[in-house]
């Protein structure tokens, strides 16, 4: 099975160290979420994979071979981003043809289906499209290329709620019918939570979380109740954050002692991926006075 490996990938822009030794592996046939704040380096990392940028140090390997200036590797990798890389005067159908010539094949049947689903006229010129429909045209190309690794950098930029829903459903459908690896970098975490199966969090220039979504959400707990009772029940358990309000306390943790009976007056609830991401990218162990 194919895989992309990141080994101590570093990228500096002058004195600004954006990536500080990224290590992770993207396996074949997975739907990954790449999460991180604005400026965390998600786009930089994807551009390095696609050779739009080169690492200052470290390397990215596809099946053990560097992707840098490697045409065979790049033919197996695709990056959809906000960058304007298409000839503006070309019609959408011409872009489909151009993509086929570059990558060797193209799923015309799926492209026609997607164009109809999104209400995109393939005869239109790319430069005449709105921001949202330019995004749609790029998404159609991304879903129809024959690449094994497809990176989607903020893929729903400019899309309204209806078109975002269409995209997520069509992505799920094409993944089910023709599995390959998709990597979604998005700030709309609540929208991709039920789509991705594994998440990476990029924070401070390194990967701070690398875990299956199911395992992660199974551990996340929000514990609320009188301060003394919450502390007694947690019994020294490590918390991500605590919020105090009067005599009440809300604690966010990945290590709740679920084997212990929950005392009266204390409630234990789950955390969705969005809340968990927010807590994991804060300074751990802090106490906020609400």
TrEMBL record:
Can you give the residue ranges of the ABC transporter domain? 4-229
- Gene3D superfamilies cross-referenced by the UniProt entry: P-loop containing nucleotide triphosphate hydrolases
A Pfam family found in this protein is ABC_tran
- From which domain of life does this come? Bacteria
Query: Cross-referenced InterPro entries, in alphabetical order?
Result: AAA+_ATPase (IPR003593), ABC_transporter-like_ATP-bd (IPR003439), P-loop_NTPase (IPR027417)
Give the UniProt keywords, A-Z: ATP-binding, Nucleotide-binding
The GO terms describing molecular function are: ATP binding; ATP hydrolysis activity
Task: Enumerate the SMART domains for this protein.
Answer: AAA
User: What PANTHER family does UniProt report for this protein, alphabetically?
Assistant: ABC TRANSPORTER, ATP-BINDING PROTEIN (PTHR43158:SF5), SKFA PEPTIDE EXPORT ATP-BINDING PROTEIN SKFE (PTHR43158)
What is the name attached to this protein's record? ABC superfamily ATP binding cassette transporter, ABC protein
The record lists the organism as Lacticaseibacillus camelliae DSM 22697 = JCM 13995
């Amino acid at each position: 099975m194919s895989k992309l490996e990141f080994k101590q990938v570093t990228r500096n822009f002058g004195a600004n160290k954006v990536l500080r030794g990224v290590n992770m592996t993207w396996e074949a046939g997975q739907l990954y979420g790449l999460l991180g704040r604005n400026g965390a380096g998600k786009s930089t990392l994807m551009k390095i994979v696609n050779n739009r940028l080169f690492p200052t140090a470290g390397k990215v390997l596809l099946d053990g071979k560097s992707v840098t200036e490697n045409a065979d590797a790049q033919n197996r990798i695709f990056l959809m981003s906000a960058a304007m890389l298409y000839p503006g005067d070309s019609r959408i159908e011409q872009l489909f043809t151009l993509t086929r010539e570059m990558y060797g094949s193209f799923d015309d049947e799926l492209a026609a289906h997607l164009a109809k689903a999104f209400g995109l006229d393939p005869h239109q010129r790319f430069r005449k499209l709105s921001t949202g429909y330019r995004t749609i045209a790029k998404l159609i190309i991304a879903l129809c290329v024959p690449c094994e690794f497809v990176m989607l950098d903020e893929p729903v930029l400019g899309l309204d709620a209806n078109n975002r829903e269409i995209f997520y459903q069509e992505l799920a459908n094409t993944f089910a019918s023709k599995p390959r690896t998709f990597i979604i970098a998005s700030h709309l975490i609540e929208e991709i939570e039920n789509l991705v199966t594994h998440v990476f969090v990029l924070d401070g220039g390194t990967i701070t979380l690398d875990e299956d979504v199911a395992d992660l959400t199974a551990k996340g707990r929000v514990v609320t109740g009188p301060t003394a009772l919450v502390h007694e029940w947690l019994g020294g358990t490590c918390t991500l954050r605590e919020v105090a309000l009067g005599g009440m306390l809300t604690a966010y943790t990945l290590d709740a002692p679920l084997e212990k009976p929950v005392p009266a007056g204390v409630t234990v609830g789950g955390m969705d991926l969005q809340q968990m991401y927010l807590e994991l990218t804060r300074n751990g162990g802090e106490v906020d006075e609400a």
